[in-house]
Amino acid sequence: MIALIGTVVCSTLIFVIFRIFEKFNIHTFQAIVINYLTAFLCGYFINFKEISKETFIHLDWLPFVGFSALLFISLFILMAISSQKNGIAATSVAVKMSMAVSMIGMILLYNEDVSYTKVIGIVLALIGVYLIAAPGASDTKKTSAYMLIILFVGSGLLDLNLNYAQNHALDHISASLFTAFGFGAAFIIGLVVCLIQILRAKAAPFHYKNAIAGLLLGIPNYYSIYFLLESYNAIPWSDSSILALVNVSVVVLSVFTGLLAYKEALNIKKTVGIIASLLAILMLYISS
Q1: Are 137 and 193 in contact (CB under 8 A)?
Q2: 3 state SS of 212
Q3: CA-CA distance, 190 to 40, in Å (whole number)?
Q4: CB-facing half-sphere around the CA of 136: CA atoms within 13 A
Q5: Which of 13, 16, 103, 212 lies in the 20 to 30 Å Cα band around 219?
Q6: What whole-number distance in Å separates Cα of residue 199 and Cα of residue 104?
Q7: Crossing angle for the helix pair 99-110 and 268-287, to the nearest 10 degrees
Q8: Is the pLDDT of residue 140 over 60?
Q9: Mean pLDDT for all residues in the chain
Q10: pLDDT given for residue 235 in this prediction
Q11: Can you tell me the mean pLDDT for 114-130?
Q12: What are the tens digits of pLDDT across the range 217-231?
């Protein structure tokens, strides 16, 4: 149960840290690059004993690492901006509701049975994200709603990629080590972009506070996944039950954090969207 609480707290903390970036004028991209170096080092030193010669002889997992890395860094940057523009509550809902997208992908890839509860859950998830992303009449940030849609679809594709890799390409590498390599590849991609920006004289001046921010972000980023994997191993529930409980808990905790700490406004449309999203997770849990 400690691992379950850990993944919920760490996942929520990521959204909170992104919101803090704005307050302290942190350069988001630089911090995210350092964050992935930190997450890789955490994952490597915890799991390096699992590395074997077979890991690098059988490289079926390598393309999935590359695709994961591209999604890791691009979605994380968008998540940071969305947390600042759309708020913690709306961003967390868009990310956690992406399980509906991954389920659609699994239905198509694995020819899974389609139950009424699964269809209802997917429809509720789509409605929930639409209501949360749709700007209200008094919303002055109408152009930022598209970020929630991209996060919803992109996070679902990331989950589907990780699920497919785990089922078809991780015979010679553990899931935790695979994730660590994904973080390392995301760091390399970010570093290359930084070097290109420096050569084109478009890079922002590097400040030590961005490195500190990246370090503080990278620790909960890694442990949100580490604790989730530990929950799968330690708790005698199905993986889908654990994931559903984690998603509900993160959404609820993020909503309350946004309301209490940042006074984020919730109009009727967004409130109905959050309720629909929570019901969607329940339906998807039942269907699994």
Answers
A1: no
A2: helix
A3: 13
A4: 13
A5: 103
A6: 42
A7: 40
A8: no
A9: 88
A10: 82
A11: 86
A12: 999 999 999 998 888
- Here the tokens at position 55 are 């890991």
Specify burial of residue 193 (Cβ count, 10 A radius: 0-12, 13-18, 19+). Answer: middle
Give dist(CA 259, CA 248) in Å, integer: 17
Q: pLDDT for 18-53, tens place per residue?
A: 999 988 999 999 999 999 999 999 999 999 888 888
Question: In the chain, what's the furthest Cα-to-Cα distance?
Answer: 59
The residues near 99 (Cβ < 8 Å, ≥ 6 apart) are: 125, 156, 159, 243, 244, 247, 281, 284
Residue 84 CB contacts under 8 Å (≥ 6 apart), including other chains: 18, 19, 21, 22
The residue with greater pLDDT, 277 or 82, is 82
Residue 113 burial class via C-beta count within 10 angstroms: exposed 0-12, middle 13-18, buried 19 and up? exposed
Look at residue 17 and tell me whether its pLDDT is greater than 90.
Answer: yes
Coil, strand or helix at 117 = helix
Contact between residue 237 and residue 30 where contact means Cβ atoms under 8 Å apart: no
- pLDDT, residue 178, reads 93
Half-sphere exposure of 62 (CA within 13 A, CB side): 6
